[in-house]
Structure formats: structure tokens, C-alpha cells
Amino acid sequence: MCDNEATHVLLFVPSEGNLERWGAFCENCPHRRIAPAAEVDAAREQGVRLQGESFDTTRLPLSDEHWRYRKFTDEEQAEIDLIKNGQLVETYLSPGVFEWRRPSNASEENTH
Fold this sequence. Notes:
Order of helices and strands: EEHEHEEHEEH
Largest sheet: 3 strands, antiparallel
Mean pLDDT: 85
């Protein structure tokens, strides 16, 4: 992650083909992390050879077999603009489940 302006969506393509969005990033973040599958496999094998089965694979690049990135659609860009302007806020629903909605205005609720 970095502090650059988010412009792209990271996508995961599972073998079943149901595309998943994994968040908003600047172009350089996913670009630096996605590598040819053979390169990722070789890095994994070398890590296991050097450190054994406890090798931490989270530091490896992402395989280009399953990961893609693309620019925001116009709708996604509009949503990002609403979030940046404070017109949409994230609401925690349950572990790992969040929803974006318009903020409630507590001062208006108290005056009615």
C-alpha cells in the first residue's frame, strides 16, 4: 500500500471464473506485485528451499494467472469521489463485512 491516489481496482480471477474485486490501489501498487506465474513459482520454491516449509509466502508477488488490475469505471470513480467528500461512510456490519452508506446527520435527528 502507498499514499498515492487510488486509480485502479485489483481483481482476483479464481479457477471457477467468478471475478472478485479486492480493493482500490494506485497503479504502481498492483503493477509491482503481479508477476508471471513461473516467476512466482520459482520464488516460492527458492524460499521453501532456503527456509523450509515455514517460508512466508505473503511476501511473494501475485501470480498473473489469477490477478489483474484495471482503471476505475466511471461509476467506481464517482463512488470514490463521494467517499473522499465524506458523502459515503463505511459501516461495520460483521467481521469482514462492511457497507458504504450515506452518513446519518445526528444534529438533524435531534431537532425533529
